[in-house]
Model the fold of this input.
Amino acid sequence: MTPDFLFQAVVYLLAAVIAVPIAKRLGLGSVLGYLLAGVVIGPSLLNLVGRVEDVQHFAEFGVVMMLFVVGLELRPSLLWRLRGPILGTGSFQVIATAGAVTGIAFLLGQPWPVALTIGLILAMSSTAIVIQSLAERGVLNTRGGQACFSVLLFQDIAVIPILAVLPWLAHTYGATPGEGAAHGHESALAHLPNWAQTLITIGAVVAVVIVAHYILRYVFRFVAEAKLRELFTAVALLVVAGVAYLMHLVGLSAALGTFIAGVVLAESEYRHQLEADVEPFKGLLLGLFFIAVGAGLNLGLVAANPGLITMLTLGLIAIKFAVLLGIGGVFRMGGGATSLFACALAQGGEFCFVLLGMAGDQGLLKSDVSGPLSAAIALSMALTPLMLIVNDRLIQPRFAKQTTPKEHDAVESHDHPVILAGFGRFGHIIGRLLQTNGFGVTILDNDPDQVETLGRFGLKSFYGDASRADLLEAAGAAKAKIFICAVDDEAKSLEIVDLVKQEFPHLRILARATSRSHAYGLISRGVMEFRRDTLGSALDLGTDVLKALGYRAHRALRATQVFRCYEEESVRELAKHFTSYQDASYISIARQHLQNFEALLREDMKRQHLGNEDAWDSAGPPKDG
Amino acid sequence: MSSPAQSRVLILFAHPALHRSRINLAMMDAVQDLEGVTFRDLYEVYPDFHIEVSTEQELLVEHDVIIWQHPFYWYSAPALLKEWMDVVLEYGFAYGDEGRALHGKKVMSALTTGGPVDAYERAGYNRFSMKELLAPFDQTAHLCGMKYLDPFILHGVNQFSPEQVTAAAASYRQRIQELLA
Done:
């Protein structure tokens, strides 16, 4: 760990810590905060950072993680439903934008292979900025949000053929590849014949799906049983890094590969824990990525050609915006969704930089073309959060009425009203009861064995530690209404209750108490809706015993009901005096209470007409005739 | 609590399947917020039929008018209201030499029936009038020293249009307001 590394870390972290909260408070969103922080520490202003490109390459891993997390939240069934938008909207956007840009570049005097190269490059948008900004607004699941996502996903796929077509364009143009062409973007399979490359590439994707679906659960289970929190984090990161590396080896987009892995794992019982573990890394790396984009903005170049770069930037945004509006119209998205769609995607993206670099290596683009383009792309990315703010404040309110009812459907499909922590002997009964009554329950348990055993019987739950706020967040606590704490460990249960009360005060907590002292702990935290886990079944068996002793069934039930009322009251009463089981004053109060309890109980039983025939017959005018 | 001059009304409501009854929901909504009314949804309070006798008796003592609001099941009340009568109207409290706690209070039945009004007469398919069928309620009140008021009855509620439901609920509210005065 060199001092230089530490200096860099301090600069980046400090910039983020200062800029992002300010940007958020001003209502600008975190993405703009990171970008501005980057501009400030970048070479053009304070010049505190070293090689921005290195940082950017490293931070691109954040984009990869983001797609993994997006995949985790997207079930295969939902993805299948989106196949229309992905292929339709996505291909339309890429072809129309590329066509328009190519045409204009050609008219401006570029030879056609160069014009087409520019067109293909500028068709890309920024997955990182768009998804982060939409997720921050909570609109990713709306119609407009899903359209954006579909297009971005298609672009991720489209990068692969575009990368393949650039050398051919260079060849047609008669360009001489520069030094960089031999390395960098070539895959490890380049020396193989085409059919073998294709086979291996498809094989790699299939392998990811199979491993994620069938094998990873055993790995997760093996690791989870070690009961070391950081080890599970390690395995989560390993999955992302491993898939990314494999994709890189076969020349596919790493983001696409991890997205597929995420979608496959969306069905897994480890989904929420994976999401909770990857989330903070994703957030930090993505932030770093945005800072790097900001820092990479060559303000010197902008200052030297203000007119040209302003025109390029505005032209780029205008063309993309117009194409996106057209798509919204053709696919009948409706006004609100179309304006979100057009404002969100009208920029260049991180793939543009990759493609620009490669086109330069191939000799397709000279630096006098790629330099201004690069600046315009970065500026258009920086302007996106502003466009989204304009959309939020000025455009969306006009459509608010028409779009609200539509946008609910998609969200509700995975927002359950109930979260159940603890799927053991106690919790699984509640879970089944709720499910048979048609209520959606998100179930968490931190015992991988239990999760898997019940899974074999078709009872779906997720592995995870409910005493972690990030996991509860991932399980949808912000949108749920009811939280059931059914874990058997008393200390853990109270820890979870404290956490839920603090982080998600809107949740109504219903809890299992495993003992009297546990019940007292719950009462002292204001959780009055609890049940002692043995009371119900002990009283049920007690009823059977009374019947066996000769009580008629109804009388036995009544006796149990009366007993239960007093018992419940007694716990709540004694809770006021409880300090510990060694405390003499508690013991004496409890003893006194128990004696009163029995006296009262006998009194009450006498009163029950069905329990005491004397009172019923002997007195006064017969009520029954 | 309202001014001492005003009567206090206790509505004892019994409906085991409220989620299926538009009319009783509307009636409930129409009177719940009235000042001086205590609305007691018995099936909600005692889902296990385990009625707390002392609580119920205290409530009776605190009020001047008792309403038994329920659908007219098999020419009588749903089981929980009958259970309430069996256990709450005890000897020594509600009747008998010492049982004078309810003397002078008023009782009214508020009923909904599926059958039309003309079913409840000699020639109709229910053969008996409402007054005849309600004799057990009338007599129960009488034995407890209470005055049994003319019942509030809505016939044929299954065929009610939404407008009729609203109008019926409004007329129920008005009747309760008259009793509060």
